[in-house]
Amino acid sequence: MTATAERTDERRALTMAVRDFADRTCGTRDQRLRLTDGGVEVHSPEVYRRLAEMGWVGAPVPSAYGGGDGTVVDACLLLEELEYGQVPVFGLGVTWIVAEAVRRFGTEEQRARVLQSVCAGEPRSISMSEPDAGSDVGSLRTTARSHPDGWVLNGQKTWTTTAQHAAELLVVCRTDSAAPKHRGLSMFLVPADAAGVTIRLIPTMAGREVNDVFLTDVVVPADALVGELDQGWSQLMAGLAFERLIGAAQMLGLARRAFDTTLSYVTQRRQFGRPVGSFQALKHRIADLATELECARLLIYDTAARVEADPHAAFARESSMCKLKASELARRVALDGMQMMGGAGYATEFEMEHLVRKALPTTIYGGTSEIQREIIGSSYGL
User: Fold this and answer.
1) Could you say which of 243, 308, 318, 353 is catalytic?
2) What's the CATH class of domain 125-230?
3) Which CATH number describes the domain made up of 9-122?
4) Which residues of the chain form CATH 1.10.540.10?
5) pLDDT tens figures, 273-315
6) What's residue 312's pLDDT?
7) What is the CATH code for 239-378?
8) 8 — pLDDT class (breaks 50, 70, 90)
9) Angle formed by the axes of helices 45-53 and 91-105, nearest 10°
10) What's the longest Cα–Cα distance across the chain?
11) Contacts with 211 (C-beta within 8 Å, 6 or more apart), sequence order
12) Distance of alpha carbon 192 from alpha carbon 170, whole angstroms
């Protein structure tokens, strides 16, 4: 695959294939309700297995481990289209985050085991946040202590995305309590069904997205450590550009879906003898949203192409801009769409109500808008 954001024939074919899959799999409201337990489940193992069979789950994984050798641009395109099509595979992005960490920092044995199983359709999840360590991840207190059989983990994680579906968790722990807060952290691979692991769902307005994870004397072998001991913070920072880019691509897909849903409604809905979208109040709002969507798309894919061309650079400023822009735009488009659709915008029998519930939390998870602004501002020496 090429190392630019150009829409090559291969990428156009991928986009069309995802759209066709989405139309056939969840193109109707009844299909989506069936796959999501009435609209509350965000991840369908059934659909996820089908994506794995088609090779899409392994798209960004190196071919040496059964993947498609896709780039970050390809990953963004795939996730954007899956989100636009409302395909319920919310665990795909977080699986790729874990896979990328293992690819970058894992041993060859870890890469072979984890990446091959990811391509085969086994989801993963990452546990960073804790009750007292959310935006301030460096304050986490979950510990990993040396043990005759490897390591023993104790603590509580929270807001762990789709952990209830994961085969394995990448858990960030404190391995040196005497070190400064951003040092002495390490990453461990923990089977989700290991003795001492308890996963408890946190119901949210967006559905069954996140979980508490309790770790009570969880013993993992010595080779569960990913990367270097006490270097977990720098390893996490190295993967932020990828994480924020693919998250931004998903949010762009959500924003596009909300926009098209709104446009369809205001084109068809008639009042005072003409479509409501023809009135200036709505027409100008549509124009503004369309312009913002194009700006977000250009920002995301320009940044993705730059990351693709220089994968070892941090791109902290640019990736934070992508996450900030895409999440706030998804929220704006959904809320504006609900307003323009009137009663149909918040009635549960229509799609927009669901899109609003999905869009509102996007400015929180993956790093809040406030944190993204701090990162961007600090990058200018402020």
Assistant:
1) 243
2) mainly beta
3) 1.10.540.10
4) 9-122
5) 999 999 999 999 999 999 999 999 999 999 999 999 998 899 9
6) 87
7) 1.20.140.10
8) confident
9) 50
10) 79
11) 158, 159, 160, 161, 162, 163, 164, 199, 200, 201, 202
12) 10
Tallying the residues shown for the chain, one arrives at 382
243 is catalytic: yes
- Find all residues with CB under 8 Å of 245, minimum gap 6, and list them: 72, 75, 76, 300, 303, 304, 307, 319, 322
For residue 210 the two structure tokens come to 């996140």
Contact 177, 191 (CB under 8 A): no
Record the tokens describing residue 274, joined without a space. Answer: 């003409």
pLDDT band at 2 (very low <50, low <70, confident <90, very high): very low
> What's the rounded Cα separation, in Å, for the pair 208 and 222?
33
Q: Could you tell me where in the chain the CATH 2.40.110.10 domains are found?
A: 125-230
Beta strands in 131-258 (DSSP E): 143-147, 150-161, 168-174, 185-191, 197-204, 207-220, 225-226
Six token digits for residue 203: 């119901």
DSSP β-ladder status, 124-127 and 168-174 = parallel
Q: Give the residue range(s) of CATH 1.20.140.10 domains in the chain.
A: 239-378
Residue type, 24: R
A 10 A CB-CB count for 222 gives 10
pTM: 0.95
Contact of 143 with 173, CB cutoff 8 Å: yes
Tokens encoding 306: 């730059």
Terminal CA-CA length for the chain: 39
- Please answer whether residues 199 and 213 qualify as being in contact, where contact means their C-beta atoms are separated by less than 8 angstroms: yes
Across 188-213, average pLDDT: 97
The first and second tokens of residue 371, run together, are 């944190």
Return the residue matching tokens 């896709």.
70
